[in-house]
Design brief:
The protein is α+β, with helices and mostly antiparallel strands. It has helices at about 5-15, 30-40, 45-55, 60-65, 70-75, 85-100, 105-110, 115-125, 135-145, 155-170, 175-185, 205-210, 265-275, 325-340, and strands at about 225-235, 240-245, 255-260, 280-285, 290-300, 310-315. Strands 1, 2, 3, 4, 5 and 6 form a six-stranded mixed sheet that branches.
Length: about 350
């Protein structure tokens, strides 16, 4: 099957199956960029609500740039991968400093948190540039239809798939990119694809060879590690102790209750918690990209306020919703509310 005939057949399929997404009804680069950042590693059903929330709260890039990082993180809470929110905020400030939204892939690529895929997508959707935004859908569909077994996370594979996608894109770049995304999400899905009613069932190499579940090929890289954490909800006279995670951390800028690590200053508290605190939840499992966290969660209400490391602050318990927290901490607080209700 030639790249041209594939492209034509895909666009025909798209006419009948295109998803109605709000950011497809605009050429505003800000709205499109925001959707691309939010949709990274996020399901459409969840991400659309966040996109609408951000567009309502910050309808222009200038308003987003003027917000505080805390405000942006708070609005982002629940989406995970919080570096995306920090980079979003920093990129908004870059755009404002430039005086306009950049309109070339090269300059868009320089925005914080924007990689090759996102730059290509913004270029195609906002400015009509003839760029192929190669993502997981591209890799999956092209590897199956054309029988390509070059690993998609290898340098060779990235070049091969990008070259093939570029050959197909043509002048209808925005439509072609959208069609590939929808075809991968609706038809050629990672598991249990709808091969019987696929427009490429007669040409698909993976189907012909019985290799649907083997393509695309991906080299194994990072092993998933298990991390154990112990949190303490330290409550004293209507106040609770929290701290902000530091730089270089997966939850940088987010707040958490007392973490009982090996810090010497926490030795006395650790002993008291193990002796007197109430266990609210044990080994709550939280899965991240390269690690699995098992968290224990205690409630401790001492008669006197205990000594804590200098990075902890005391806040009114009723104000905790004003602080952006990781999803894991949100889950633990939900467990606490259930236990106390």
């Amino acid at each position: 099957m030639s790249p041209h005939s594939f492209s034509s057949a895909l666009l025909t399929w798209y006419q009948d199956h295109a998803r109605d997404l709000p950011w497809r009804h605009t050429h505003d680069p800000y709205a499109i960029w925001l959707s691309e950042i939010i949709m990274q590693q996020t399901r459409i059903a969840q991400g659309q609500a966040y996109w609408e929330r951000f567009m309502a709260q910050y309808p222009t890039v200038e308003q987003l740039a003027a917000a505080s990082e805390d405000e942006v993180l708070r609005l982002w809470q629940g989406l995970g991968y919080y570096s995306r929110a920090r980079h979003l905020h920093q990129a908004a400030q870059q755009i404002v400093a430039l005086g306009r939204f950049p309109d070339t892939v090269e300059v868009i690529r320089k925005l914080k948190g924007v990689g090759d895929y996102t730059a290509a997508a913004i270029g195609a959707f906002a400015f009509g540039l003839p760029t192929a935004a190669v993502d997981g859908n591209f890799y999956r569909v092209l590897s199956r239809v054309f029988g390509i077994d070059t690993p998609i996370n290898s340098s060779e594979g990235k070049k091969e798939f990008q070259a093939l996608a570029n050959e197909m894109t043509g002048e209808r770049a925005a439509e072609f990119n959208s069609a590939m995304m929808d075809f991968g999400a609706i038809q050629c899905t990672p598991k249990s694809p709808s091969c019987i009613v696929c427009p490429f069932c007669e040409e698909c190499e993976a189907l012909r060879q019985g290799r649907i579940d083997q393509l695309p090929v991906k080299l194994k890289t990072v092993k998933v590690k298990t991390l154990r954490m112990t949190y303490v909800y330290l409550r004293h006279r209507g106040e609770v102790a929290i701290r902000r995670r530091g730089e270089g951390d997966i939850w940088q800028g987010l707040w958490e209750p007392v973490l009982l690590d090996e810090t010497p200053a926490l030795t006395n508290l650790r002993n008291a918690v193990m002796r007197d605190a109430r266990l609210v939840a044990k080994e709550v499992k939280h899965v991240l990209t390269h690690r699995i966290i098992l968290a224990d969660f205690y409630l401790y209400e001492p008669a006197a306020r205990p000594s804590l490391p200098a990075d902890y602050i005391w806040i009114k318990e009723q104000d905790i919703d004003q602080y952006a927290i990781p999803r894991l901490v949100e889950i633990l607080l939900e467990r606490l509310n259930d236990a106390e209700s």
